[in-house]
Write a structure and sequence with these properties.
globular; 5 helices; alpha/beta; 128 residues
């Protein structure tokens, strides 16, 4: 007699928080995750902002040739977090969209837009 295969965990609801730097995205991400866990007993995860981590680690802002790597790393962080079993909600403290916006504004570089759009399409909700 074989046992039935376990149902795969459903993908978590993905919520993106995007906006300009230093506007409270990280604070909002933590508050939202905490409130959803407390009020609705949901299992929540947060994906931290890759660009901020990158800048802190190196003590500088990225050059044009480093932007794509940061955007791809952030998209990979989101995908890896979403693949973790048992999460109900994944709150993303920004997405590659903001890296693409900065690259466009600072360097007149539009090459990150496809990566940003692809990742953004995986979001169920975006808070601006």
């Amino acid at each position: 007699m074989s046992t039935p295969a376990a149902e795969p965990s459903p993908a978590p609801l993905r919520v993106a928080i995007v906006g300009a730097e230093s506007t409270g995205k990280s604070v909002l991400a933590r508050a939202l995750a905490d409130a959803l866990a407390r009020e609705f007993d949901l299992r929540c995860g947060i994906v931290a902002e890759t660009l901020r981590d990158w800048c802190v680690e190196r003590g500088r802002t990225p050059r044009i040739d480093e932007q794509m790597g940061i955007a791809l790393a952030h998209a990979a962080r989101i995908a890896a977090a979403a693949a973790r079993p048992g999460l109900d909600v994944l709150v993303c403290d920004t997405t590659p969209l903001m890296v693409a916006v900065y690259s466009d504004l600072l360097f007149d570089d539009h090459t990150l837009e496809p990566v940003a759009r692809e990742c953004q399409r995986t979001m169920d909700a975006t808070l601006l």
